[in-house]
């Protein structure tokens, strides 16, 4: 996006997002101090980030000639609330304690509890309970915000269906991701791509683009084409995430470069490497939480030597070409097409 346009759009979104949290924090005051603290921690977690989802939604709405800017802003708040709800729940499922380079909600509440003399196990349970409640609150809030758009019933129902599709597929994708990690099945590369689409790509890229198009009252077929572009973009970003999750620089990404290997996360990298001699020699280390940096480096080297890293980099290039072809064939307004092509470049080149 052009800098001035992006800045203006983001400022408008941030104003609405902040207003939402101010309202909820005030509302929580009517209950008790502890519940207000929960909302304040959620507020801290939710602020920051690239705002990819709301900006995609607003861009699609505006560039398709939409005249429901207030509804688009409300829906943009909804999709960002949904994103935060899902990452909070994902952290609980994965047992993670960091988010965006700092302590997540589980870690923050657990730390407070330990400082008050609560034993570590119970403190961790308290932190996870608070995170679960926070995710529940945000998930409900996302649906509520979208349901409040001031549009005809048919249009509001259409937008709610799109949002529901995103949540439905995210749950399916999360289930598959956990099943793969437990070894309940040995997925092939296509199954992993399907999981990536359902868990992340749909709600992160398809949903905002389709909601923006719906609120602009664009032809249904155009909404479907944008959905296909969103799916490809989502896969592109997720593949890049998986690459950075092993070979990225933590100081830049704000994420561990060993977590995926210690957790035994089943990614395309691992799928490409398995059954190769290089990976088989170190596979026993994969998924062992207690391994040290030297063992992690052995796993990284195996992913290099096996050719998995190069193969994933080639797949990222192919997916980018596919996304660009979809954009070229979609007959989009020139401004929207340019924004989406820019998103493809970002997806290929980003380091965080």
From TrEMBL:
<dbReference type="Pfam" id="PF00348">
    <property type="entry name" value="polyprenyl_synt"/>
</dbReference>
<dbReference type="InterPro" id="IPR033749">
    <property type="entry name" value="Polyprenyl_synt_CS"/>
</dbReference>
<keyword id="KW-0479">Metal-binding</keyword>
<dbReference type="InterPro" id="IPR000092">
    <property type="entry name" value="Polyprenyl_synt"/>
</dbReference>
<comment type="similarity">
    <text>Belongs to the FPP/GGPP synthase family.</text>
</comment>
<protein>
    <submittedName>
        <fullName>Polyprenyl synthetase family protein</fullName>
    </submittedName>
</protein>
<keyword id="KW-0460">Magnesium</keyword>
<dbReference type="InterPro" id="IPR008949">
    <property type="entry name" value="Isoprenoid_synthase_dom_sf"/>
</dbReference>
<keyword id="KW-0808">Transferase</keyword>
């Amino acid at each position: 996006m052009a800098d001035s346009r992006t800045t203006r759009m983001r400022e408008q979104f941030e104003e609405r997002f902040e207003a939402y949290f101010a309202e909820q924090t005030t509302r929580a005051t009517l209950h008790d101090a502890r519940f207000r603290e929960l909302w304040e921690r959620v507020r801290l977690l939710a602020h920051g980030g690239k705002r990819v989802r709301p900006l995609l939604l607003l861009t699609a709405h505006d560039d398709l000639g939409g005249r429901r800017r207030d509804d688009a802003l409300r829906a943009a708040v909804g999709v960002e609330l949904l994103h935060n709800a899902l990452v909070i729940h994902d952290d609980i499922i994965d047992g993670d304690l960091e988010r965006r380079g700092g302590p997540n909600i589980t870690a923050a509440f657990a730390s407070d509890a330990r400082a008050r003399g609560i034993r570590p196990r119970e403190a961790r349970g308290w932190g996870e309970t608070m995170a679960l409640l926070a995710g529940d609150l945000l998930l409900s809030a996302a649906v509520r915000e979208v349901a409040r758009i001031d549009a005809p019933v048919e249009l509001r129902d259409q937008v709610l269906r799109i949002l529901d599709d995103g949540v439905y597929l995210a749950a399916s994708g999360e289930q598959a991701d956990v099943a793969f990690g437990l070894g309940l099945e040995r997925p092939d590369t296509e199954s992993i791509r399907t999981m990536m689409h359902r868990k992340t790509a749909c709600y992160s890229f398809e949903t905002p683009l389709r909601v923006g198009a719906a609120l602009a009252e664009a032809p249904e077929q155009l909404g479907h084409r944008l959905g296909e572009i969103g799916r490809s973009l989502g896969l592109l970003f997720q593949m890049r995430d998986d690459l950075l999750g092993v070979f990225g620089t933590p100081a830049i990404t704000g994420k561990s470069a060993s977590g995926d290997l210690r957790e035994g996360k089943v990614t395309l990298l691992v799928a490409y490497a398995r059954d190769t001699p290089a990976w088989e020699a170190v596979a026993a280390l994969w998924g062992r939480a207690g391994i040290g940096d030297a063992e992690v480096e052995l796993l990284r080297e195996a992913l290099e030597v096996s050719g998995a890293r190069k193969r994933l980099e080639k797949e990222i290039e192919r997916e980018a070409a596919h996304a660009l072809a979809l954009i070229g064939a979609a007959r989009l307004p020139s401004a929207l097409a340019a924004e989406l092509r820019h998103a493809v470049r970002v997806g290929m080149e980003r380091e965080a």
